[in-house]
Design brief:
Structural class: mainly alpha
Distance between the termini: 41 Å
Helix content: 40-55%
Shape: elongated
Low-confidence stretches: none
Number of domains: 2
Number of strands: 0
Length: 138
């Protein structure tokens, strides 16, 4: 949604509903996302429609430190294979290649993950080389 649309939804009369209920019904923000806004903004900004709309569109999140390596995990999500060609290049952005944890795949963990990421990196390097060679030959 655009910033204007979010602002319009937030300024819609909420009646007796709480701000949390209003956020959920008008812009689909609930649970952890709503708690993050509430915690980050403080009460005054959280109840100010324009500040709340601005934060919804561009909430600054400051990272103070990384967690210990013992807590590191792989995450799910990423670029879907349907958005790629056989060389793992984005079909919507020619010349941009992705591999490893940039992809939406259920990767194994540990050494298997590293091996798979390295193999994908090698595959992407060959694809990028071939793509660049095609550009140079034109």
């Amino acid at each position: 949604r655009s910033a204007e649309r979010v602002m319009k939804e937030l300024t819609h009369p909420r009646g007796a509903r709480s701000i949390s209920s209003h956020l959920q019904s008008r812009v689909g923000i609930k649970g952890v996302k709503a708690a993050l806004l509430r915690e980050t903004l403080g009460k005054e900004a959280y109840t100010d429609t324009s500040q709340l709309a601005e934060a919804i569109k561009a909430l600054p999140v400051v990272v103070k430190a990384a967690r210990p390596m013992a807590e590191a995990i792989s995450t799910a999500g990423g670029v879907r294979f349907e958005a790629l060609d056989e060389r793992l290049m984005l079909t919507s952005v020619p010349g941009v290649f992705v591999a490893g944890e940039m992809l939406d795949w259920e990767a194994p963990t540990g050494g298997y993950l590293l091996t798979a990421c390295l193999a994908q990196g090698a595959w992407v390097a060959e694809g990028a080389r071939d793509w660049l060679a095609g550009l140079c030959s034109k």
